[in-house]
């Protein structure tokens, strides 16, 4: 699992097709190999589909419930992506849509009813919620066994302790993306710009763990450190997780480094990535603006959901023997 720091970027395997329309326009100067998330997601979702089929053969339809508060356009759009994917995979996707003026109690009533419903295996409350509501309190009300985002404090605690549990989707998707594209992580220097609870912080834990696809020397730095480029320029693998559009520029990237665009902000439905596209001139490999980390996030959500359904089914069968019942 140990290779020279830049070896991977030069030896582009078959998966990066030469027909990929690189967004780096104009100059024919060096352009990074692209690291699409689509093929990664497809492989994960194919595995999920098999596990769903096995559950359905045993009479269990896995169900992933979604809760949306308010009428934010982008959020409604992402819920639709998840529902379409759910239908394709054979999941039921019960949905609760609360009005923008719903109270915290209204939200908790919906969460409690999904928690109590044995036909619901996974549950996610779409982030963000309107400003008068407390998202963290809502998250804590979700049954940790149904927490497909892997964000409940119990599951974050499991992650920190190295115990099994649902993994946060975007971090887990990034580990999968790196592994899929054959980028060595073990023993290398990973720098994460951003320390948020959904990406930077849990990714640091994940990639620092003792696993062949992780085991890195991880540094977390944030934009409040005046000299943050000093850190990002050291990275063999730089992960942008700041949520500040365009913050990562070519001068922040070590030549030949792998650049993963994790952080995004949304302007309405438009996606504004942390990584400026000009970084492709310096990086050895880089995720595309669209079709990079996003699709892997959704795939991991469904992997968590099918795992929750399998656990619930095994528990309902008493012994935990997955061949019982039918
Ligand atoms: N409880 C909760 N769990 C979430 O997982 C969650 C959430 N709340 N709130 C919103 C964010 C956002 N999110 C995305 C997932 C996939 C893409 C995705 O696949 N995007 C495509 C295209 C998107 C576009 O063009 O706008 C791409 O990156 O290629 C984007 C965004 C999950 N979120």
TrEMBL record:
<keyword id="KW-0554">One-carbon metabolism</keyword>
<comment type="pathway">
    <text>One-carbon metabolism; tetrahydrofolate interconversion.</text>
</comment>
<keyword id="KW-0028">Amino-acid biosynthesis</keyword>
<dbReference type="InterPro" id="IPR046346">
    <property type="entry name" value="Aminoacid_DH-like_N_sf"/>
</dbReference>
<comment type="subunit">
    <text>Homodimer.</text>
</comment>
<feature type="domain" description="Tetrahydrofolate dehydrogenase/cyclohydrolase catalytic">
    <location>
        <begin position="36"/>
        <end position="149"/>
    </location>
</feature>
<dbReference type="GO" id="GO:0006164">
    <property type="term" value="P:purine nucleotide biosynthetic process"/>
</dbReference>
<dbReference type="GO" id="GO:0000105">
    <property type="term" value="P:L-histidine biosynthetic process"/>
</dbReference>
<keyword id="KW-0658">Purine biosynthesis</keyword>
<dbReference type="GO" id="GO:0035999">
    <property type="term" value="P:tetrahydrofolate interconversion"/>
</dbReference>
<keyword id="KW-0368">Histidine biosynthesis</keyword>
<dbReference type="InterPro" id="IPR020631">
    <property type="entry name" value="THF_DH/CycHdrlase_NAD-bd_dom"/>
</dbReference>
<feature type="domain" description="Tetrahydrofolate dehydrogenase/cyclohydrolase NAD(P)-binding">
    <location>
        <begin position="168"/>
        <end position="312"/>
    </location>
</feature>
<feature type="binding site">
    <location>
        <begin position="194"/>
        <end position="196"/>
    </location>
    <ligand>
        <name>NADP(+)</name>
    </ligand>
</feature>
<keyword id="KW-0521">NADP</keyword>
<dbReference type="GO" id="GO:0004477">
    <property type="term" value="F:methenyltetrahydrofolate cyclohydrolase activity"/>
</dbReference>
<dbReference type="GO" id="GO:0005829">
    <property type="term" value="C:cytosol"/>
</dbReference>
<dbReference type="Pfam" id="PF00763">
    <property type="entry name" value="THF_DHG_CYH"/>
</dbReference>
<comment type="similarity">
    <text>Belongs to the tetrahydrofolate dehydrogenase/cyclohydrolase family.</text>
</comment>
<dbReference type="InterPro" id="IPR000672">
    <property type="entry name" value="THF_DH/CycHdrlase"/>
</dbReference>
<comment type="function">
    <text>Catalyzes the oxidation of 5,10-methylenetetrahydrofolate to 5,10-methenyltetrahydrofolate and then the hydrolysis of 5,10-methenyltetrahydrofolate to 10-formyltetrahydrofolate.</text>
</comment>
<dbReference type="InterPro" id="IPR020630">
    <property type="entry name" value="THF_DH/CycHdrlase_cat_dom"/>
</dbReference>
<feature type="compositionally biased region" description="Low complexity">
    <location>
        <begin position="8"/>
        <end position="28"/>
    </location>
</feature>
<feature type="region of interest" description="Disordered">
    <location>
        <begin position="1"/>
        <end position="28"/>
    </location>
</feature>
<dbReference type="GO" id="GO:0004488">
    <property type="term" value="F:methylenetetrahydrofolate dehydrogenase (NADP+) activity"/>
</dbReference>
<feature type="binding site">
    <location>
        <position position="264"/>
    </location>
    <ligand>
        <name>NADP(+)</name>
    </ligand>
</feature>
<dbReference type="GO" id="GO:0009086">
    <property type="term" value="P:methionine biosynthetic process"/>
</dbReference>
<keyword id="KW-0511">Multifunctional enzyme</keyword>
<dbReference type="Pfam" id="PF02882">
    <property type="entry name" value="THF_DHG_CYH_C"/>
</dbReference>
<keyword id="KW-0560">Oxidoreductase</keyword>
<dbReference type="InterPro" id="IPR036291">
    <property type="entry name" value="NAD(P)-bd_dom_sf"/>
</dbReference>
<protein>
    <recommendedName>
        <fullName>Bifunctional protein FolD</fullName>
        <ecNumber>1.5.1.5</ecNumber>
        <ecNumber>3.5.4.9</ecNumber>
    </recommendedName>
</protein>
<keyword id="KW-0378">Hydrolase</keyword>
<keyword id="KW-0486">Methionine biosynthesis</keyword>
